[in-house]
Amino acid sequence: MSDYIFPPAPQPSVAVHGSEARYAVARIFCVGRNYAAHAREMGGNPDREPPFYFTKPASALVASGATIAYPPGTKNYHYEMELVIAIGAPVFKVTPEVARAAVWGYAAGLDMTRRDLQAEAKAAGRPWDTAKGFEQSAVITPLTRASRLGELKSGAITLAVNGTEKQRGDLADMIWSVPEIVANLSQYYHLQPGDLIYTGTPEGVGAVKPGDVISGEIAGLDRLSLTIADPE
């Protein structure tokens, strides 16, 4: 006899490059405006102020290569190409030096955004949940172990829609580096294995529509792809 009224949802997880094992995901954190040029295009100030965060549910994960429906409630559905960090050791209130050792792996990801709902929330001073934390809004490639790559300090990050390049930047352009992000976030949370951090996007975000194919690349990581289907 089950102890649950309804069957528990499947454990969200991410594939691991070169392994049959998977990385079980507990939480998804996202860094806002971590590239100066993107901060400007969104009307923000790119000065080096403390980073800010929002979250997505782990159930929002969708694997690269998928075809997903255009989401409900929006007419301005945007891509944001991002480096994703996977935490591999418990950290709380640590320095960047300690945080560096807690990074288990990296992936390429998309922070899909209902931009019109985000704009409405900003104007009303409300949270971004409906704009950011919806179903299938966290696209991700298989993780590559940091032990194979070292710390990702630089490297091209690009995105194309239907073969036309829309975003191009470099990981060196991030206002906050990988160790700094992990260290800062650890001031507010007990970070644990299973935590993912989407680290922000370069300039060039824009809308997609049904039929569009998104492709993205970050140097050293698996290539990302996503196809947008008709609304349900």
From TrEMBL:
Q: Which Pfam families match?
A: FAA_hydrolase
Q: Which residues form the Fumarylacetoacetase-like C-terminal domain?
A: 28-227
Q: Which Gene3D superfamilies match?
A: Fumarylacetoacetase-like, C-terminal domain
Give a yes or no for keyword Cell membrane in this entry: no
- Superkingdom classification of source: Bacteria
Q: Does the keyword Metal-binding apply?
A: yes
Q: Which InterPro entries match?
A: Fumarylacetoacetase-like_C, Fumarylacetoacetase_C_sf
Q: Name one GO molecular function term.
A: acetylpyruvate hydrolase activity
Span-the-membrane segments of this chain are none
Query: What are the record keywords, sorted?
Result: Hydrolase, Metal-binding
Name of the protein this chain belongs to: Fumarylacetoacetate hydrolase family protein
Source organism per entry reads Paucibacter sediminis
Per the UniProt record, the lineage of the source organism begins with: Bacteria, Pseudomonadati, Pseudomonadota, Betaproteobacteria, Burkholderiales
